[in-house]
Amino acid sequence: MAAASAPAPRVGRGLELAEIVRTHGTAYRQTHPLARAQRRALHAIATCRTAALGGHRDTCDTCGAVQISYNSCRNRHCPKCQTLAKERWLHARRAELLPVEYFHLVFTLPHTLTPLAQGNSNDRLLSLDDGIVRFRWKDYTDGNRLKVMALDAAEFLRRFLLHVVPDGFVRIRHFGLLANRTRHAKLARCRELLAPSPVPAVPLRESLPALMLRLTGLDIARCVVCQQGPLRRTEILAPTPDPPRLVALLNTS
Ligand SMILES: [Zn+2]
Ligand SMILES: [Zn+2]
User: Fold this and answer.
1) For residues 52 and 132, what is the distance between their CA atoms, to the nearest angstrom?
2) Pairing between strand 132-139 and 145-152?
3) Which of 131, 136, 230, 237 has the fewest Cβ atoms within 10 Å of its own Cβ atom?
4) pTM, full prediction
5) Residue 189 C-alpha to ligand 2 middle, in angstroms?
6) How far is the CA of 50 from the centre of ligand 1 (A)?
7) Could you give the CA distance from residue 196 to residue 211 in angstroms, rounded to a whole number?
8) In whole angstroms, what is the distance from residue 26 CA to residue 88 CA?
9) Which residues make Cβ contacts (< 8 Å) with residue 238, sequence separation at least 6?
């Protein structure tokens, strides 16, 4: 384990936004005024799937192996929580599609934000070394070439936090047929008018194990040791009061 005063450089796969937040977030918060949603996003990202959020212990019915899982933060800015949230969102939108042609309208972000809009994902992070974050980004203005950008950690966090939407703000606002209050009734009426065929049943919300199995082929309801036994919830772990930094050290072994 690295000494707290001189953290070892983190290079290659496995570097997470959470680690950058844990290492540099405290100093950043002390020197930059943050909106509530930004503070909450940093805290959520730092504590996601650590003992700080509590969790549960599962025991395999077949081999007795014990598995500990910590809770997710479910913050929409957290890269660990984004994939599942995005998949659920897409699933819900697909259910709304009408049997007609759609236009796909694309607009561009200000150029300076492009690298970070793409960099807002753990997959693109390359290294955190001596306070410098390096990450991959695709330069659309240069033939989609993959490039590496190096930013001071504070500047990286500042740009990341530009993407944190304020409380009560939605990124997508629906109008017309898709306006929230009347969407269900209006889409049903459209389907009636467009096609005499039966209205498709509203798909049920997939359970987390079913969603994970479909996306990754991984059956999280089964024991990872013997690959057979179903897991039984044997203990609920309460959130620990430990600060995220301590939790991070405990969980990087
Ligand atoms: Zn999360
Ligand atoms: Zn087992």
Assistant:
1) 27
2) antiparallel
3) 230
4) 0.68
5) 50
6) 10
7) 32
8) 32
9) 54
* DSSP β-ladder status, 55-60 and 10-11: unpaired
- Count of CB atoms within 10 A of residue 247's CB? 20
Interval between CA 41 and ligand 1 midpoint (Å): 9
- Coil, strand, or helix at residue 18? helix
The ligand placed nearest to the CA atom of residue 226 is 2
- pLDDT tens for each residue of 108-141: 666 666 655 555 587 889 999 999 999 998 888 8
- Answer for the pair 120, 79: CB distance below 8 angstroms, yes or no: yes
141-166, pLDDT tens digit by residue?
888 899 999 999 999 999 999 888 78
Contact call for residues 244 and 237 (beta carbons, < 8 A): no
CB 70 within 8 A of CB 164: no
For residues 121 and 79, the answer to whether their CB atoms sit within 8 Å is: yes
Residue 63 Cα to ligand 2 middle (Å): 4
Question: Which ligand lies nearest to the CA atom of residue 43 in the structure?
Answer: 1
Ligand 1 centre distance from Cα of residue 77 (Å): 8
What the block records as the tokens of 194 is: 């467009």
| Residue type at position 56 | H
Please list all protein residues whose beta carbon sits less than 5 angstroms from ligand 1, which is an ion: 48, 72-73, 78, 80-81
State the sign of the Cα–Cα–Cα–Cα dihedral 203, 207, 212, 213. negative
Tell me the pLDDT band of 64, cut-offs 50, 70 and 90: very high
